[in-house]
Amino acid sequence: MNYPVYVHQDPDGSASGFFPGVPGCYFAGDSFEEALADAARALDAHLELLAEQREAIPEPTAIHQHQNDEDCTGGAWGLVNIDTSKFEGKAQKINITLPELLIAKIDEYVKAHGEYGSRSGFLAMAARHEMKHS
Q1: Nearest to 36 by CA among 84, 75, 62, 65
Q2: pLDDT average per 10 residues of sequence, the chain (134 residues)
Q3: Residues 12, 16, 17, 23: is their CA dihedral positive or negative?
Q4: At 18, phi and psi to the nearest 5?
Q5: How many Å separate Cα 24 from the centre of its chain?
Q6: pTM strictly above 0.85
Q7: Domains of the chain by range and CATH?
């Protein structure tokens, strides 16, 4: 998932920032590039802590939702991509029943779209997508 990140560069070349949609997640670096690298590490660690505390992982918000925030002036916007599925806990095997032709269609789709990795990956992504809208 792509999380919007706001970065402000100081006159000395150092930079710092935060994730507007993820309260309490801050980062910094001696340069803009180092700050962005630290941003990814900070977000990963922050989301891991939330997961360990069994708190909800915040959904990414759109940059335009924060562009008028008073804390977001004079800097630059970017996106940090984090795979949040790793914070959902240990995988468990389940037994489900689906129609044979549907399974074949799912398998064909997964084969053509390698980003799912497997039938299970596809079904998990479909479930996340549906629950996101509820």
Answers
A1: 75
A2: 94 95 96 94 96 91 90 92 86 92 96 90 88 71
A3: negative
A4: -160, 170
A5: 16
A6: no
A7: 2-87 (3.30.160.250), 100-132 (no CATH)
